[in-house]
Structures are given as structure tokens and as C-alpha cells.
């Protein structure tokens, strides 16, 4: 090694010495790890409770892929995943990747039917919990040049992989560059492009996007490293560029360091460590606070049809209500879904059927007082769209029970517009409700509407007197329903397809004490 590199390495070690002392590897123990065996290259789902890893009896053995699940704080006995066959070489060791939801498995292999020597292959979990046969996505992902180390972004929109070059590492293995391809539909991808500097330089691989869809980990051989491949962290900025990569010095070693996995909680990194007798074990490292990704809320669950109780292929749309920027998370054929909600604003979260034709469940997530990782689970039943189906429009609300819409309501109204455009014969009723209606003969704050009644009286002599009686009340539901209908009409939906109806307090709910605001609800009813 050149003197300059030795100096850079020494300075790097001094700079990150407190971090290196901060985190020590902790093996996750049996039954995952054995004594003298090789368990290595872990990959975990977003919730950190399903892990795949490679297992071999010695360094020359062809590893097999295993899966284990964490229950009540204990990893169960690993089981082999059938159908995931990989031709292992030194450079491609560890290229299996399980997506955040645990329903998509990608790997590289030279099995028959590929485009080049090493190609990317994809397997999907079926509705019954099994796995499809490996599928080769073909061009433009695969080429005659070897493609390895594939991973999928948490939202499923981007596929990252390494395309090898003729440049070699000091150990004689091929170097590569990290590429990214954007998904543009089922089994369809844009031509991949190489990630820019400062990520790609001379020898990079094993890129993985973390749960915040901003933080990117990759392995690189570059000046200032500890030797071989080292793990680096970078962050995608709002303008599309990348921050200067920072090394994971707390876990990098002089050997090749690759294939680190970080679940959505962001506090632990799972990696490969040596056991006491020369084998390899799966271990976890506590990530220093300054190297963690942003805090977020993990939303997960399962979706079924209320009509058949069978799984519905779901999607979850997470929308920033201030910017209207949305991320769509695809679920699995078994009805499972996993999505991630940032904690930096008000977010509309909608759980929907991928192919439409069903009701949807919407929720609103606001910034917590103290950002911290949260995990929320929902078992959702969606109903097929048909006449007389009624379901709540949770994310439409009015300010102080007036007829002025809350700003975040625009996302749900747009969702209704898209549904009506996709179903041109559908007619709906927008029903608005309130828990109680206040009435008074004297105007005061909060009573914004009025009713003028004609009152007739007759005295003893038969003379009739007509007076006007003005009653003030708080029933804004007719105006609220009309406001929503008008918003849809202004977007191009004809007035005959949207019927506004204010129900006042005629159909009250029974909310828990202190939650009367929940009775100020908006519902959709399909008429046709």
C-alpha cells in the first residue's frame, strides 16, 4: 500500500475511533448460528422479523439459502427456501436479497435460460405462501456482461445491481459499477443507468436502499478504506444528487465487507462475523446515532376481500399532503403489505386494491412530538364496489365543523376523482354527518346557519297575526357535502354523478368519551 493511503487510513481510524468503540458485534446465537459452520450474508425484511442468509459447512462448500423468523424475541430453526439456486463464486457470494415486505426474492445465477453468464433472477411469493419459479427479467436488466448483487428499493420502484467490468481487485476478482433501473410496469424496466459519483468510482458493489428511501449503503474499494471492500453510507438529496459517502467504520474490517442489512428501526446492522473456531456467524451491530437514517413509521398488515375472505393484492400510497409527493408500496399476492411513513409532516396513507374495484382504507399520520421509530399493524378488509356499499372517507375533514375543508382533504378528494374517472358509469352519494346540532334563537359564535320559520297566531277575536321566527343552528352538513361535490365537479366529474347529502345528526355514532369529533364524519355511498 502506498504511503499516502497508509496516512489516510490512519487518519480515518483516529477520526472514527469513538464510533469503532461504540459498536461491537453480537452473534444472534442458535439455532441460526452453528459452531464451525458458515452462516453469512443476512438480509432482513423491513420489520426485522424475517431473515434470509446463506449456509455452508466450509469455505469450499456450495452454500444454500435459508430463512428464519423471529417470534417472541427468538429466531426459529432455519428452513431452506426451495427453488433459489445460485452459482456461487467469490465475487457473487451473498447476492440473495429479500425485499422489505418479504414477498420478493432476487439473486444472480448462471442457471439455464439467462442472457449472460451471471444474470439477475426474481422470485415472488404466491397467495398460498410458496414461491414462483425464478424469472429472468431479460433485457435491459441483463446483458452478456455479468450482473450481480441485485436489490430492490423499499417501494419496489427501483432495482439496484452491479455490472462487472474487466478491472480487477487486488485479490483478482472483477470490479464493477452499481446500476439502477426504474420499474415502469409489471416486468417492465427502463434501461439501467450507472449511479453517479460520489458512489461509483473504481470498484463498487452490493448497493441497498434503506427504508427511508433516501439512505443508500454500498461496498467500495477506495482511498481511505480499511482494506478490501468497505461499507459506505450516502443520502439522496432533494435535487437528486448524493451526499459524500461516509464509511461504516464501526463495523468495517481489513477483509471484504459487503451485504449489510438494516431493518426499518434503523438502530441495528446485521452482518457476518467470525466465530471462535474459524467459521462465520450472523451478528448484529448497534449503529451509532449519527449514522442512522431518519425516523419513520412502519405500516404493515394484510388485506382480504370482505366478500370472499381471500387475499387481495394490495398497494399502499403514502402522500405528503403539503407537497402532494406520493410513494406507492406494492404488496404481495398473499395480501401482505409493508409501507414507510416519514415523520416530517402530515401524510395521507391509503390502503387499496392494486387492480381497483374495491373500497379503500385511508388514515392520516402527523408528526409526533418526539420522532421515534413506530410500528403499526392493520388487518384490512376491502369490499367490492357495488350499489349500496357505504364506507368512510376518513381523510376528508372540515375546520372547526365549518364548511371549510382542511387542506389535507385534497388528497382524498383526488382519490375519489381518480376512482370516478376509472369507473365512468359510477354514481356516488357524499354523505356528511355530525354528532349533535346546537340550536338557539340568538346568534352566537359557532352557529353560522339560520332557519326562518313562519309563525301564525290567532287571538280571541279571530284576528290572525303572522310573525317570523329566526332559529340559529350548527348543522353545516348540507354545505359540507356540497363543498366536496363541487370540488369533484370542478375537476370534471358531471354533477349527476355526485349527489351531496347532509344528514345532520340523524345517524349518529357512539364514539368513546372525548372523541365526539369522530362523529363529524364523511361517507361515500355507491348509488350505481
Low-confidence segments:
1-22, 87-93, 511-518
* Fraction of residues in β-strands: 35-45%
**Structural class given helices, strands, pairing?**
mainly beta
How far the N terminus sits from the C terminus, by CA atoms, comes to 75 Å
Reported CATH architecture of the largest domain:
6 Propeller
Largest sheet geometry: 5 strands, antiparallel
Overall pLDDT metric: 87
Radius of gyration: 29 Å
Q: What count of domains describes the coordinates?
A: 3
Helix coverage percent of residues? under 10%
CATH third-level topology of the largest domain? Neuraminidase
CATH homology superfamily name of the largest domain: TolB, C-terminal domain
Class of the largest domain in CATH?
Mainly Beta
Number of helices: 4
General shape: elongated
Number of strands: 34
